[in-house]
Every structure is written in C-alpha cells, then in structure tokens.
C-alpha cells in the first residue's frame, strides 16, 4: 500500500508509534519483573525511531497543510500519552 499524501504518511506512522508505545509498556514488565531486557531493547529502539519519524512527519504535515500552532502542539502532546495517537487519529487527524 502506498501512501501518497503527507497526511496519510503521518497517520500511518502515528498508529505505528502508538502501538510501539503500548508494546514498550509490556516489554518494561518483562525487563523489570522477569529480568528479560532484550525485548525492551528491541522495542525501545523501534519506538524511538518511530517517535522521531512521527515528529519529523508532524513538522512536514504542519507546514504542508498550514496547521495552526495549537494543532501542531496538540498533535505532539498526544504522542506522549498512551493511546493518545489512536484518539487523535480518530477524532482529529482523519478530519484535518
């Protein structure tokens, strides 16, 4: 599947970033409760990469679609909250 618009690219990365955030919570349990640090390392690296990509695409989408500062700030803040990107995608990103 090819995503042609910057908003489609951003939304797909937002969903992946949201899932990686949730998965990171589970791997933290494995790391600290069961002394299994490897899954946390792998998922943590993936999540870090996806978060950086999310921020870069957020800047691109904000510029291309001429989002207001509050929209860009809100899109950034929801990435810091578990399940935030899912909510934002269903309520805002799909309509902006």
Automatic annotation (TrEMBL):
The chain crosses the membrane at residues 12-30, 42-63, 69-88. It is a multi-pass membrane protein. It is found in: Cell membrane. It comes from the Bacteria. Its main location: membrane. GO terms for cellular component: plasma membrane. This is DUF3817 domain-containing protein. PANTHER family: MEMBRANE PROTEIN, MEMBRANE PROTEIN-RELATED. InterPro entries: DUF3817_TM. NCBIfam families: integ_memb_HG. Pfam families: DUF3817 (PF12823). Residues 7-92 form the DUF3817 domain. It comes from Pedobacter aquae. Keywords: Cell membrane, Membrane, Transmembrane, Transmembrane helix.
